[in-house]
Amino acid sequence: MTATAERKTLSSETPLLLGNERKWTDYFGFSTDHKVIGIQYLVTAFFFYLIGGSLATVMRTELATPAPDIVTPDVYNGLLTLHGTVMLFLWIVPAGAGLANYLIPLMIGARDMAFPRLNAIAFWLIPPSGLMLVGSFFFEPPQAGWTSYPPLSLTTGMLGEGIWIMSLLIGGTASILGGINFLVTILKMRVPSMSLTDMPLFCWAMIATSLLILISTPVLAGALILLSFDLFAGTAFFNPTGGGNPVVYQHMFWFYSHPAVYIFVLPLFGAISEVVSVHARKPIFGYRAIAYSSIVISFLGLIVWAHHMFTSGTPPWLRMFFMITTMVIAVPTGIKVFGWVATLWRGKIAYTSAMLFAMGFIALFLIGGISGVMLAAVPFDIHVHDTYFVVAHFHYVLFGASVFGVFMAIYHWFPKMTGRMMNETWGRIHFALTFAGMNLTFMPMHELGLMGMNRRIALYDPQFTDLNVLATIGSYLMAVSTIPFLINAIWSWRYGPKAPANPWRALTLEWQTLSPPAIENFEELPVLKTGPYDYGLGYIAEEDPEELYVHGTPIPAT
């Protein structure tokens, strides 16, 4: 990347502008300010994260013993469905949307999103969707596990199923509206001096995410609408007793639900590219490769869905196609991991909470990626299909990458959002408990799966008890790990040390305005002087490049 023009830079000593902070009541109303909407998304998402995590704790408590001691098998299946859909559609997706809402206009030098009112509407679809989703459990909870699987869902829990479908349709609409807004904002509202290859990698990741949302989410919506017709209008699109085909539903469901994995993690792929470069004080390694690999992942993510269906009567030639594409998608993902590790190599790493979660992100995602390549192989996939090996794999990807990525992003951008610094000691405690709990919970599940323990069941053979006890203890540790984060976030937001405009001495544009930003983001539209990752090249002359700002005071980088 080449320098294009001059940029007005704020020193780390730039004071906050009086009257810049909003009132707390502003966050409970209909606002078109992208920064307010971003925080509304994040707080709402974290509320549902607590609900989804509580459901998981109840399930793991039940699985600590082979017998149904806490809940009945039917209630367990309902909890399973609710936990999965809450964590995916009400935690990870809104959290990524919250980060994108807050950061994209600031990163590209815009004053707001392209469609502010549409942006607000997209957020305010989330609370009713969430309430309906949670409420569906109390109206004839489904007895078939994942409520979306016909033909079982056609005979059980019809009222709960209908509410569940409606909540996902509303949430999917919000996701589509957000995808349109992100795409138009990034492509059309950059400052004139910012070309596509001058953008932060987070923006590239959101382009790829938005494309996936706009292509795949309508297919899920169509599948759910047809399923609702089968449930309530007597049609037989998926009901084999009337000539329908439930395998067609699986194709439609997985055409969204596998790309959804990348909808969940691509925003965090972008976020970690921002974090590792700043906290290692090095230019990102392979900017163009990381940027273009996001687009490649978006494309390949649309042609791998049937690896979830190797046991569904898929013909051998089709199995081979999806096995190959699933293995190939590991290449652009591996390019990203290589770029992050190469950026860390011999960097002046500061072990802040954000950086710890970033390194945890890389380690856990790598484990999930390796097991994903294993599952791409048809013979191995058939052997472990519907076992806890699969549960371990997708939790290393979804929890290990997505949840660690969200926490990483919060620790990194909290000063920008609130004007306050978070406490690093509490942050490190949070990381240690979460990392230990994560591995203690999900690492034993690999062995459970290889031993033959099936997923989606409350009862199991006593030979699996010891490993399930370990997993349950790990789940309790993860539940406890949330406490230091809550204390840290709430206390720091109100009483933490005042943050300067650019505490990390970053080069991307969101750090070249006040903390928190003014209502219109910038007093005047900024222009670029450097690339977003040109660290160590002498562009920050007024600050000591050997120091990193933490807790309101400089500490030496290590």
Automatic annotation (TrEMBL):
Molecular function GO terms recorded: cytochrome-c oxidase activity; heme binding; metal ion binding
Catalytic activity: 4 Fe(II)-[cytochrome c] + O2 + 8 H(+)(in) = 4 Fe(III)-[cytochrome c] + 2 H2O + 4 H(+)(out)
Compartments where found: Cell membrane; Membrane
GO cellular component, one term: plasma membrane
UniProt keyword annotations, A-Z: Cell membrane, Copper, Electron transport, Heme, Iron, Membrane, Metal-binding, Respiratory chain, Translocase, Transmembrane, Transmembrane helix, Transport
Catalytic activity, EC: 7.1.1.9
Metal-binding keyword on record: yes
Main localization of the protein described in the UniProt heading: membrane
Transmembrane segments: 41-59, 79-106, 118-139, 163-189, 201-233, 253-277, 289-308, 320-342, 354-378, 390-414, 426-445, 469-491
InterPro entries referenced in this protein's UniProt entry, alphabetically: Cyt_c_oxase-like_su1_dom (IPR023616), Cyt_c_oxase-like_su1_sf (IPR036927), Cyt_C_Oxase_1 (IPR000883), Cyt_c_Oxase_su1_BS (IPR023615), Cyt_c_oxidase_su1_bac (IPR014241)
Domain Cytochrome oxidase subunit I profile: 24-529
KW Electron transport (keyword) present: yes
Top-level EC class as recorded in UniProt: translocase
Origin superkingdom: Bacteria
Pathway(s) per entry: Energy metabolism; oxidative phosphorylation
GO process annotations (BP): electron transport coupled proton transport; oxidative phosphorylation; respiratory electron transport chain
Lipid bilayer topology: Multi-pass membrane protein
General function of this protein: Cytochrome c oxidase is the component of the respiratory chain that catalyzes the reduction of oxygen to water. Subunits 1-3 form the functional core of the enzyme complex. CO I is the catalytic subunit of the enzyme. Electrons originating in cytochrome c are transferred via the copper A center of subunit 2 and heme A of subunit 1 to the bimetallic center formed by heme A3 and copper B.
Family statement: Belongs to the heme-copper respiratory oxidase family.
Protein name, UniProt field: Cytochrome c oxidase subunit 1
Originating species: Leptolyngbya foveolarum
